[in-house]
Design a protein that fits this description.
The protein has 340 residues and is of the alpha/beta class. It is built from 12 helices and 12 strands. Helix 9 crosses helix 10.
Length: 340
């Protein structure tokens, strides 16, 4: 008689293998009712965990490798949270900074030398590389450059629509958007910004920028020099049809832009409202108190680790996509549009 597998239990219960796996481990992300139903069903079907197989798999290092750009606030927050979650699951996590190793590919190769069992890539937007199929991959980002990789993404469309709608409700109709660096992530966010602006009837002007504080500072100064922003008390400024809000690719870019504006005597939000994306520690700081879109760091990190662990145990699983909802966190950097 064929032995009952976890896949059999999942099919009978009408849920995914990952749900069964979590339920049988009594993971609190599964409701108590569902956990009980799956435990009862597994017992009724005669399912028992393959102890021998588990012991054999223990020879495989319980190490998860993570590569990201750790000069990016959001990437660092993902990595810190994943360290905590992996430790709780008795996995070790090793992180590598793509910037230090000259790119993602070199960082991946470094982790392969350490014989990691799984690999998580945080926003590998600039890649055109191949990763050994022997190392199952999970990608945190808007799309994956790897065949067969699981994908965890947050909803740009949802977050940007909430942000633009918030600005419209404050009376803003002219908005500048500081775009991010070339890559999948920036393109998806730009598309979301344009779609939200069209939906809300807002005129948006896109300005090339980047994803660092220095990028935001540089572009902020350029905008002031061009006369796009000035104190609303300035006589020459009062007759111009000028943007009243600035939306930045991420919080670090917004941080630099705010510093540039303040140094030029332009008050945020009295003269211009500024918003970011990611709801990083920068946005949450009292120094900036930045309106920003929260991308669900805790949920994204937990999903990425869980998918990596499941691939460790069941490498034959088909690629999966998980999307995390985004929320808008309103703070003091946005206010009613200044009257010109």
């Amino acid at each position: 008689m064929r032995k009952v597998t976890m896949r059999d239990v999942a099919e009978k219960a009408g849920v995914s293998i990952s749900t069964v796996s979590l339920a049988l481990r009594n993971d609190e992300r599964i409701t108590p009712e569902t956990r009980k139903e799956i435990h009862d069903l597994a017992s009724k079907m005669g399912y028992s965990r393959d102890i021998a197989g588990t012991l054999l798999r223990m020879d495989k290092a319980r190490i998860i490798g993570v590569v990201g750009q750790l000069n990016q606030e959001l990437h660092s927050e993902y990595v810190a949270r994943m360290h905590e979650i992996a430790s709780g699951e008795c996995f070790q996590l090793i992180s590598q900074d793509a910037n230090v190793y000259g790119g993602y590919e070199a960082a991946f190769n470094r982790l392969m030398q350490l014989r990691v069992s799984n690999l998580i890539a945080v926003n590998p937007s600039f890649l055109d590389i191949e990763v050994s199929s022997a190392i199952p991959s999970v990608v945190i980002g808007q799309a994956s450059p790897f065949d067969g990789a699981d994908l965890v993404r947050s909803s740009n469309e949802q977050g940007m629509l909430k942000l633009v709608d918030h600005l419209v409700n404050l009376g803003h109709r002219q908005v500048l958007y500081l775009d991010g660096p070339a890559g999948i992530s920036a393109q998806c966010r730009l598309d979301s910004m344009r779609n939200a602006a069209t939906h809300c009837g807002v005129e948006v002007t896109v300005v090339p920028s980047g994803n660092t504080m220095d990028d935001g500072f540089r572009v902020g100064n350029e905008l002031v020099e061009k006369g796009l922003f000035a104190p609303k008390s300035a006589a020459a400024y009062s007759t111009q049809k000028s943007p009243t809000a600035l939306v930045c690719y991420n919080d670090q870019c917004a941080q630099g832009a705010i510093i540039a504006l303040n140094r030029s005597g332009i008050s945020v939000p009295h003269d211009v409202s500024v918003a970011g994306f990611d709801n990083s520690s920068i946005a949450q700081s009292k120094a900036f108190d930045l309106t920003s879109v929260d991308r669900g760091v805790n949920e994204v990190s937990a999903l990425a680790i869980n998918l990596a662990i499941e691939r460790h145990e069941y490498p034959e699983l088909s690629p999966r996509v998980r999307e995390v909802p985004t929320t808008l966190v309103v703070r003091s950097s946005t206010a009613p549009a200044a009257q010109r």
